[in-house]
Amino acid sequence: MPKPMKTAAELVELIAAELRNHGDYADTDASTVVIVEQHPLWHASLRRQGPRIDEGRLAAVHEIGRKLASGYGLARESA
Q1: In the Cβ-directed half-sphere of 8, how many Cα atoms lie within 13 Å?
Q2: Peptide bond into 40 cis (omega under 30)
Q3: What is the C-alpha separation between 60 and 57, in angstroms, rounded?
Q4: How, if at all, do strands 41-46 and 33-38 pair?
Q5: Residues 6+ apart with CB under 8 A from 16
Q6: Does pTM surpass 0.85?
Q7: 22-53 confidence digits (pLDDT tens)
C-alpha cells in the first residue's frame, strides 16, 4: 500500500509539532528544519545557527524525521 504523500513544507510542520512536544527542544525554530529530498524518499536535517550545530537537537530532528518517513512519502511541490 502506498504511503500518503506530504510536501516538504507539510513535513517540516509535522516535525516542528513533534519538537514542540519534546521538552528539551520545544523552542526549535521550524525554519531551521530542512527536508533533504530524494523523491519519494526523504530525510530531515537541521540548519546550523551560529558556529556550531546543536547535536542533541539534530539527533531529535533526525529521529522524528525517521519515524515520519516510515509513514509519509515526499510529494513534489507544484511549480
Answers
A1: 17
A2: yes
A3: 5
A4: antiparallel
A5: 28, 30, 33
A6: yes
A7: 888 999 999 999 999 887 789 999 998 889 98
